[in-house]
Amino acid sequence: MPYKRDDTYYFEDGSCVLRVGDTLFNVHRSILSKDTSTFGTMFSLPQGNKECEGTTDENAVVLSGDTAQEFRHFLWALYGLPPELAVLSSLKTDLTIIIDIARIANKYSFKTLEAWALDTIHECITRHTFTMHVVKSANNTFTPQPVATPTTPLSDLPPEQITQIIHLAQLCNHERLLNTLINILIQLMRNSVKYAHLAMSVADELDLRSLRGLAYLEILQKSSVGKSFITETQLFEGSEQDSPHPDSDKTTANMVIPITPTQQLRLFTGYYRLTRAWERLRTNPPSFDHAMTCGATWHQHGCTQSWLEFWKEKTRSDSVLNLGLSDVLGKLRQVQREYERWGSATYMHHECRLLAKKSIVETIRKIEDDLPDFFDSSINYEP
């Protein structure tokens, strides 16, 4: 198989020939040895009587797992001058380029370059400045330049690129970038079941607990998959039909998405546990310890009875019943809003009212924290 020399990064005075795919690069060992990289370690190993790898085209160091274009992006960053690198960090650019730089820098342990690339990706994402164009110079070599195109909306970022960056952030243990991408996905999936499916798949693959529960809940409430097996479950149980999420439109609700048998089992498990959790909450309101002054200056039984009557009435209100059976968080938040509007005409002690309010907040927080466990069919979770 004939190999071709790269037009840009095959230097005549280079000291190490690398082969990536069918392309040869001749670069400088001093550059490759920067930043305590893997190459520096490789060059320090004794070669014995054998010809040193990388000295000729025929005996090039073979790098597998990368494409020539990806490695070219990496070398551009390695050889780039500060004003050239500033193009990627201060102007609109193709995120693919920076992703390639970060991934290969991680692969060969260029820690400083890796950190810079990941921080640049994070900066671009938080500024919503994306463009999908690569600018090339007249001789067809890669040259990053400002691109006069409008800022791309965050929702237009290709799903596969979101997945790629999340994988990269976890691989490189860049917590700030990972958390930012998770928050972006949470925002996007509330408006599109496509992103909810993406979030569910990524969360399963990378074991992202903070994303898994919310993604499965969105699929359960908005997708045709969720509706189909919910209907089957209700026919079996003889219960009323779970109503659609108020924010979902007809197109979203009817969207067909691929679900694996494992994911379907988790959705069944989540639906069953969430509906059970609501039945328990509906009949047993959150408890709280009465204030000390309640027993001394107030009729504590009347205080308790007032709280129970409020809970019984509001959990049966139309605003709560109109929500899906599995929408425990939605129901609790609706009850919370009703409690805020309850006013002062009540037999509850003032301090007990505050404690009751706190108990609703804590119940919501606990369900949010435990949401991944609701959908985990591998554990014996009792809501």
Automatic annotation (TrEMBL):
Xref: InterPro entries: BTB/POZ_dom, SKP1/BTB/POZ_sf
Lineage of origin: Eukaryota, Fungi, Dikarya, Basidiomycota, Agaricomycotina
Superkingdom classification of source: Eukaryota
Species per Swiss-Prot/TrEMBL record: Amanita thiersii Skay4041
PROSITE patterns cross-referenced by the UniProt entry: BTB (PS50097)
CDD domains: BTB_POZ_ZBTB_KLHL-like
Annotated Gene3D superfamilies: Potassium Channel Kv1.1, Chain A
Name the record gives this protein: BTB domain-containing protein
Coiled coil (residue ranges): none
Annotated BTB domain residues: 14-79
